[in-house]
Amino acid sequence: MTSPRLRGVIAATPTPVDADFRPDPERLVRHCRALLDGGCDAINLLGTTGEATAFGVEQRIAVMRAIAESRLPLDRFMVGTGVPALDETVRLTRAACELGFAGQLILPPFYYPDVGNDGLVATIDALVARVDHPRLAVYLYHIPQNTKVPWPLEVVARLRERHGATLAGLKDSAGDLAYARSIVTALPGFDVFPSSEATLGSATADGFAGCISATVNVTARESQAAWSGQGTAAGAAAAKKAAELRAIVSGHPLVAAVKSLLAARYRDDAWNRLALPLVALDPERAAALRQAYERRASVP
After folding, report:
1. Which residue from 171, 178, 181, 218 has the least number of CB within 10 angstroms?
2. What is the CATH number of the domain that holds 49?
3. Catalytic: which of 81, 123, 166, 171?
């Protein structure tokens, strides 16, 4: 029993929250269904955009369970399960495997600075040994601007050699295409996902497995056209438009901006809530974002 390989346009979904800043699974399920019906090949649940580090272990497992019970196709979901504490990472990762998710996205243990390569390798070794599940498919989450701890190429290569296909891929949220390409070159068959829709127009030629992006929540149609139309003028135009829409959104605090646009799309102010310590955009900034986004979205 192995997990299917994730490919293509993957949205890093936000997590709606209620008035007490707890995850709102009903809204989340509806949004995930809309993403899968609207151009996304898969979904990254409980990542950075999903504000996962604001939620406790039980809350995160409850979110996973709600998705699993929704009858959404779990072979199209990757779920963030990495936290600084190894035991909690093991528990979350095992829960993701047992519920049937296709992949588990693992942050490095990020509290202590200057974590050495041997410590990173030993952490994943221990995780794989303790979870010990046939559905385990580890995707390393490289976001050093947040964690201050990278997944160096040397570490990724050692782990791939030790664990084979169990180490399935890597999400690069650093926006460092030189880094992403170095891993593609060094590790044939290892799935690398940059974080920008701009890469989708030539993803296969560049050796990328797709892209995992927060802004795909609002660029899914254009992103899928870019992915499906690789090598064509239409695909290149779609990738350019998706990248331009991404740039508009990225000019604001990212999670708040994505949620603001979803609140407008769904006509549901509850989407404007963020888990503390993040806060929503002020009304003036939200209106400016919406106007700029809609202006560019309306132009072919």
Report:
1. 178
2. 3.20.20.70
3. 171
Pairing mode of beta strands 8-12, 42-45: parallel
Closest CA to 52 of 5, 86, 88: 88
Residue 229: both structure tokens together? 């139309």
107 belongs to a structural domain: yes
Active-site annotation holds for 141: yes
Is there a catalytic annotation at residue 111? Answer: yes
Residues of the domain holding 86: 8-232
pLDDT of residue 114: 87
Written as six digits, the tokens of 171 are 């999400």
pLDDT digits (tens, 9 = 90+) for 191-231: 999 999 999 999 999 999 999 999 999 999 999 999 999 99
Catalytic residue among 141, 147, 199, 241: 141
Q: What is the pLDDT of residues 69-122, one digit of tens each?
A: 999 999 999 999 999 999 999 999 999 999 999 999 999 999 988 899 999 999
Active site includes 179? no
Q: Is 164 part of a structural domain of the chain?
A: yes
Q: Which residues pair with 9 in a beta bridge?
A: 211
Q: Considering the candidates 13, 15, 48, 81, report the single residue annotated as catalytic.
A: 48
Q: How many helices (H) and strands (E) does the chain have?
A: 12, 8
Residue 293 included in any domain: no
The domain total for the chain is 1
* pLDDT tier for residue 20 given thresholds of 50, 70 and 90: very high
Q: Please tell me the pTM assigned to this model.
A: 0.96
Tell whether omega for the bond before 277 is within 30 degrees of 0, i.e. cis.
yes
* Domain contains 91: yes
Q: Is 48 a catalytic residue?
A: yes
Question: Exposed/middle/buried for 79, CB within 10 Å: 0-12, 13-18, 19+?
Answer: buried
- CB neighbour list of residue 226: distance below 8 Å, 6 or more residues apart: 197, 200, 201, 235, 236, 238, 239, 242
